[in-house]
Structures are given as C-alpha cells and as structure tokens.
Design brief:
The protein is an alpha+beta fold and 368 residues long. It has helices at 3-34, 37-45, 50-64, 106-112, 135-140, 173-200, 215-231, 251-264, 288-302, 311-314, 330-342, and strands at residues 69-75, 82-84, 119-122, 145-152, 158-165, 235-243, 270-275, 278-285, 317-324, 349-354, 357-359. It folds into 2 domains: 36-198, 2-Layer Sandwich (Beta-Lactamase); 215-364, Alpha-Beta Plaits (2-Layer Sandwich), CATH 3.30.70. The chain is built from 11 helices and 11 strands. The longest helix has 32 residues, at 3-34. The protein is elongated.
Length: 368
C-alpha cells in the first residue's frame, strides 16, 4: 500500500476514534444530566419547599460541571438589589463587610435586564470591560469564560446561574447549552408549581399540624398590616428566625417552637413557616425596642429546661429584626431581617438591621 494511502487511512482511523470518544463523552454527559429527572419531577410535583428544590438544583449543577464553578445570584426586577443565593470560600471575595455583593459587573446587569435573551456566553472575560469589576476575582481563580442563564419567578425576581470556566477545561458549547436549558426548565417548572400552590392554598391559610400561617397567607396578611401602618403612621417589625439545626425539620419538633412563638406575641400578630429553616413573625410596635423585647423574651423561653429534649430548639435560632417604615415593603423588610440573622454567623441570638447596618441593641442606633 502506498505511503500516502496508508497515512490517509491512519488519519481517518484517528479521526473516527476521536469522534467515537466525543460521542461517548456526550452520551455519558447527557445520561448523567437526565438520570434523576423522574425524582426531580416528583419533588416538584409534591410541592417541596422552594429552598429544598433550589438546593437540589445547585447540587446537581455542581456535580454535572465538576471542572467549572457555578455562581447563583438573585436580583429584583429593577436590577437594583443583588445577593448571592449561596456563599462559600470562593465567592466570599465578592462580598463586602456586610456580606453583600460589593459590585456587580455591567455585563451581568445588562444580561439580567434582558429577559428576552435568557442565555448568554462571554469569552475572554478578563479582558472584557463589562467584567472589570470582578477582575481580581476572575484572575485569582483563572476564570476565562462565563455562561449565564436567567429565570424570573412569579414575583419578578430574577434567578441567575453563572457557570465560570477555565480555558483549559472548557466544556463543549453544545453540552453547555443543554445544561443551561435544563436548569432553566427546572426552575420554570418550580415557579409554576409555586404559583399553583398560591392559588390552591388561598383558602387554606394555616398548616394543620403546627398552626403556623402558610407563606402566601402571611404575605397577604402582613401586607394589610403595612397598609394600615402607612395609613395611621404606625410602626411594624419583621422578625426572621433561622433554625440552626442541620437535622431534617419535622412537625413534632416544630410545633413546640411555634407554640413558644405564639406565647411571645399578641393574638393578632402573625407567625409563619416561611421556608424550610426559616420562620417569620410580623408584629405591630410602638417603639423600636418593642421588637427587641419580643426577641429577648422568645430566646429566654426557648432556653428553658422544658425544651431540653427538643433537638430543633436546642440547636438554637438566629433572629434578625427589621423595621417599617425604614423599609417600605415586605420584600425589603424580609431581606433586611434575613441579612441581620445571617450576620450572627450561625450562632443563637438576635441582631437588628437599621439603615443597612446590624446592631446588638436598639440603644445603639443613634450612638455616635
């Protein structure tokens, strides 16, 4: 056989092996991506808590993309308020001393503000002016490319996933498209389920076991409280209670906590199981220190010996407090209260948010 023909045949065989290897890689990738689809659909169909499903999707993405780094961000529909869904040792460089995003790249703002284009891929981002705000972060971790997807929930909040890659470990574009499309489809299905829950549970305001308000019922009822407070120039406060226990939350342990919360406030104050590990209290107050008194009273009650056998209560709660009219909407009140609770860094106690800062006591609000 002539040498040229032999070389040509060898090259064809090498090309064929490369093609087969790629197809096998593509097959395995797609198989892994959709392997737990029945379980995912079942979780959504059962109406699992929003945070539970979001955590599931996050873990799935990080497992599916072991050579990339996934960054999850939420912003409001005006693209003015931004926060990380999850913090870790990689993205903490992007946060300021108050655990908030210090800056947001213009390229990310432009993408979030363009819902008609829910996917985007940027390459060589270290040299792109639209990403210059994050240049130290990108250089430190050698990120060269980013693929982004955005999904809006029923309230207009925008959920973004950024997949940051290094040039030497870049995933093929076709496979990345599959990942982004899958994530967007899962989130859209989840938000549709949330919307259905809202419609179905309008007439079912309370959890029958714990007696706590459901989230949507609390939102509607506390919205009325805020309207009344605005009309009559009154104050209100929102308390966010983060459960510090890492064990599964069950109704048996949750009910004593709910009962203790009810004993702490007035009958017309509002208490809800807001998320898997978060409860909220909406109360009318006359003075700023009134909310602080409620938090102290609740923590004292939870520290009593009668709760020593309750693992959920024994692990403690972090309480964050925010105030109306300092914050004019339930959304901003909740974000501020959650920010104050998170500032405790997983220790039991309470903090008060006031004009963007966290305080141990309301007496410190006006201290020079």
């Amino acid at each position: 056989m002539p040498i040229d023909s032999s070389n040509s045949l060898l090259k064809e065989q090498q090309d064929l092996r490369s093609r087969v290897a790629y197809l096998e890689k593509e097959r395995d990738f797609i198989k892994n991506l959709y392997s737990d689809m029945p379980q995912t659909l079942q979780v959504i169909a059962k109406g699992s808590l929003l945070s539970t499903s979001l955590n599931r999707f996050k873990d799935k993405m990080q497992t599916q993309l072991p050579n990339a780094y996934c960054l999850f961000i939420i912003c409001d529909k005006e693209c003015l308020q931004w926060r990380l869904q999850y913090t870790d040792s990689v993205n903490d460089q992007l946060l300021n001393s108050n655990s908030q995003l210090s800056t947001v790249p213009q390229a990310l703002i432009t993408f979030a503000a363009s819902p008609s284009c829910p996917k985007r891929h940027d390459i060589d981002i270290q040299n792109e002016s639209g990403w210059k705000n994050w240049l130290p972060f990108l250089k430190e971790h050698a990120f060269s490319d980013v693929s982004m997807v955005s999904v809006s929930d029923c309230d207009g909040s925008i959920y973004l996933m950024l997949v940051l890659q290094r040039e030497e470990a870049r995933l093929e574009s076709e496979l990345m498209e599959l990942v982004l499309d899958s994530y967007a489809a899962w989130l859209s299905a989840l938000f549709e389920r949330e919307k259905a829950d809202y419609l179905l549970l309008e007439d079912s305001h309370r959890d029958p076991t714990t007696g706590l308000l459901r989230r949507y019922s609390f939102d509607n009822s506390f919205g009325i409280v805020l309207k009344d407070s605005r009309r009559h120039f009154q104050r209100a406060a929102l308390l966010s209670l983060r459960l510090l226990s890492s064990s599964k939350v069950n109704d048996v342990d949750l009910k004593p906590l709910a009962d203790a919360m009810r004993e702490t406030v007035r009958d017309n104050d509002l208490i809800a199981h807001y998320d898997e590990r978060e409860l909220v209290m909406g109360i009318r107050i006359q003075h700023l220190e009134d909310a602080e008194i409620v938090a102290k009273k609740l923590l004292k009650s939870l520290g009593s010996a009668k709760f020593s056998g309750n693992g959920l209560i024994r692990e403690g709660v972090s309480i964050g407090i925010s105030f109306y009219p300092e914050h004019s909407s339930l959304e901003t009140l909740h974000q501020a209260a959650l920010f104050a609770a998170n500032s405790l860094l997983n220790t039991s106690g309470y903090r008060l948010e006031f004009h963007g800062e966290c305080y141990e006591s309301s007496a410190d609000f006006y201290t020079l």
